[in-house]
Amino acid sequence: QVQLVESGGGLVQPGGSLRLSCAASGRAFSNYAMDWFRQAPGKEREFVATIPWSAGSTKYADSVKGRFTISRDNAKNILYLQMNSLKPEDTAVYYCHTVRVGKDYWGQGTQVTVSS
């Protein structure tokens, strides 16, 4: 069983920064890729970033490339998303996600609101 708990969301002004965290329980965190997704009001959930088990070859959605950085601490079982130069269109609920043995696991989400 895998449990994912996000934190770090909040209200930030345009141009500001936030760092999201996702604490993962369960075994073998370091063996699996981890992702961030987001869902804005009235829109479908969309991919944001992914990081493989080895923390190399990260990938990003075009909309966040150059502004967001995904990273992981395998010793602490924590996934991060550093978000810089935030824009109002980044406002969404952010979810961490992983797939294990063909099953999807999602956290409860953390709200990020970018507004002046």
Q: What this model shows, in words?
A:
The chain is mostly beta strands. It contains no helices and 11 strands. A hairpin with a 7-residue loop joins β5 (46-51) and β6 (59-60). It is globular, with a radius of gyration of 13 Å.
In short:
By secondary structure, the protein is mainly beta. It has strands spanning 3-7, 10-12, 18-25, 34-39, 46-51, 59-60, 68-73, 78-83, 92-100, 103-106, 110-114.
**Count of alpha/pi helices:** 0
Molecular shape: globular
Distance between the termini: 40 Å
Q: What fraction of residues sit in β-strands?
A: over 45%
Question: Largest beta sheet, briefly?
Answer: 7 strands, mixed
Low-pLDDT runs of 5+ residues are none
Global structural class: mainly beta
Number of strands: 11
- Computed over alpha carbons, the radius of gyration is 13 Å
> Could you spell the SSE succession in H and E letters?
EEEEEEEEEEE
* Mean pLDDT figure: 94
Helix content: under 10%
What's the structural blueprint in terms of helices and strands?
Layout: E1 3-7, E2 10-12, E3 18-25, E4 34-39, E5 46-51, E6 59-60, E7 68-73, E8 78-83, E9 92-100, E10 103-106, E11 110-114
Parallel strand pairs: 2-11
Antiparallel strand pairs: 1-3, 3-8, 4-5, 4-9, 5-6, 7-8, 9-10, 9-11
